[in-house]
Design goal:
Shape: globular
Mean pLDDT: 91
Helix content: 25-40%
Radius of gyration: 23 Å
Low-confidence stretches: none
């Protein structure tokens, strides 16, 4: 059984203390891989500490303790330095995305308005674009231009004080910045290492964005906590060639990596047409965390089939579960790897067991409690319905425990109820994906709609041939046969048009707003 509690020694030690310990040894800390090439840019632990101290010096000169500091930087070594430098200075970090595209820009603007940062640490080539978003453009610091410092001491922090604000993929009209304390940060780092027996010799490898909780903890927080090396590249380079992820795993024995479920589909698809993987050896990969809930059995099987010929152990595939309000980590499969169980509604993949926290199921909803739970949302003194007064986090996810393992069934707010029957959108989406080969995996959104005829279901599907009437016929027949549901509306669109959250998952809410909101009953 997993350990019941995070050790007190961990809960009383800020992450910057681990950084100071690591800097006593001159070995690689963080490596950013860029393309074409590839070219690796690496900081050792002493070099990292010097740059972190330099950032802390500048922040202490321009801000005061407790001020929020926005981090708006490209996914490179500068982002790592900016985040750790903010913690080292005793300020509250606000990790955000760069202002690319209308959706990301709107999300960034709303988060900045909510957090009201006193300063921003920015990539040098983004200064001009960020200046139009931050209310005090005179406190924009180009993190690339800040020199190192060997004398700056770390801030004396109270472990219950905020370390950073983690903005979720919520509404741009009312952004939700989960308040992550120093205590919750180190607790999550501890919890995130236990199922995989990780230590200083492990390699944390990946591409998930740093402004997302999964990327921030696994690729930045955990390496500092363990004194282990982090090797990363950008999400865009992953999308351009998903096999870059696989080749990087092969380069680093003992690799631990994580990605949302859609990434497993993309990698498996890319492997089918690839010829350059002949010399890839994945037999030494420690853990490949699949962190998108609910995880699809078909995705697990397709990924394992694609990379088993290259030595990837099935037990290395670790379905897991978490959310921003829990500082990302709640539960994970351990040494046993994925457990797929057949229930009445089909096959479900277990996300394993919780580590260092408690779990309960209340009216089919997953509740968790532990030192990793956020202290509410920034700027909202009332804890609302999400955080209970006695320390429980209501996740909003439906789930159950079977044979000691947690299964996530779907989102409470996404549940579709038609004629008194419950339908899970991910089940409908899986049916749509299988209905015709032109439908792209991981590019389907099913959601509830309501008109004069009551509640029904509508679907937006990414399709290679959106004008092909045979695809529409196949989808409607499949949903009717598989779920006894007529589709109220169906839109076949180009795969890139299906909206996604900041973490890359399909956004059902945005799809509903865009198509049903604009078209009503048309489609």
């Amino acid at each position: 059984m997993p350990p019941a509690e995070v050790p007190e020694e961990v809960l009383t030690t800020p992450l910057t203390d681990f950084l100071l310990r690591n800097a006593a040894v001159d070995r690689p800390a963080f490596t950013c891989r860029t393309f074409p090439g590839p070219v690796d840019d690496t900081l050792t632990w002493p070099q990292l500490l010097g740059r972190v101290c330099g950032v802390a010096r500048e922040l202490r000169r321009t801000t005061k303790p407790g001020d929020r500091v926005a981090i708006i930087a490209r996914q490179d070594l500068g982002y790592v330095v900016a985040f750790l430098g903010t913690l080292y200075a005793g300020r509250v970090a606000v990790p955000l995305s760069v202002p690319t595209g209308r959706t990301h820009r709107a999300r960034l603007e709303s988060a900045l308005a909510d957090a009201t940062p006193a300063a921003a640490l920015v990539s040098k080539n983004l200064l001009e674009s960020v200046a139009s978003l931050v209310s005090r453009p005179d406190v924009l610091l180009a993190v690339d231009d800040i020199g190192p410092d060997d004398t700056e001491p770390p801030a004396e922090v109270v472990m219950s004080d905020p370390a950073y604000l983690q903005y979720t993929s919520g509404s741009t009209r009312r952004p939700a910045g989960a308040v992550i304390s120093h205590r919750a940060l180190v607790a999550s780092c501890w919890q995130s290492t236990r199922p995989y027996h990780a230590d200083a010799e492990s390699r944390l490898v990946g591409w998930v964005p740093f402004f997302h909780d999964m990327g921030l903890i696994l690729l930045v927080g955990v390496p500092v906590f363990l004194g282990a090396r982090s090797v990363f590249f950008t999400p865009m380079e992953f999308v351009r060639d998903p096999l870059r992820w696989i080749r990087l795993l092969a380069e680093h024995p003992g690799a631990i990596t994580a990605a949302p479920n859609f990434a497993f589909d993309l990698a498996a698809e890319a492997a089918e047409a690839a010829e350059e993987l002949a010399d890839v050896d994945l037999s030494h990969v420690n853990a490949v965390l699949n962190g998108s809930e609910p995880i699809r059995a078909a995705s697990v099987d397709a990924f394992d089939r694609a990379f088993a010929p290259f030595g990837l152990p099935r037990a290395a595939h670790k379905p897991c579960y978490g959310l921003a309000e829990a500082t990302v980590f709640v539960a994970s499969a351990g040494d046993e790897g994925p457990t797929v169980t057949k229930f009445d509604r089909g096959e479900l993949v277990s996300v394993g067991r919780p580590y260092g926290q408690r779990l309960r199921i209340v009216d089919n909803e997953i509740w968790v409690a532990g030192p990793n739970i956020a202290d509410g949302y920034w700027g909202r003194p009332d804890r609302g319905e999400t955080f209970t007064e006695d320390g429980w986090l209501r996740t909003g996810d439906l789930g159950f425990v079977h044979d000691g393992l947690l299964y996530v069934a779907g989102r409470l707010k996404d549940l579709i109820i038609v004629d008194g029957r419950n339908h899970y959108p991910q089940d409908v989406e899986a049916t749509v994906e299988a209905a015709h080969p032109a439908i792209r995996a991981g590019r389907v959104a099913a959601f509830a709609v309501e008109d004069g005829h009551g509640e029904g279901v509508a679907v937006v599907a990414g399709c290679a041939t959106p004008d092909d009437e045979t695809v529409e016929t196949a989808v409607r027949r499949a949903v009717s046969a598989g779920h006894d549901l007529p589709l109220r509306a169906l839109w076949l669109v180009r795969p890139g048009a299906v909206p996604r959250t900041s973490s890359g998952k399909v956004s059902r809410a945005a799809a509903r707003d865009r198509w049903w909101g604009e078209n009503g009953r048309h489609g």
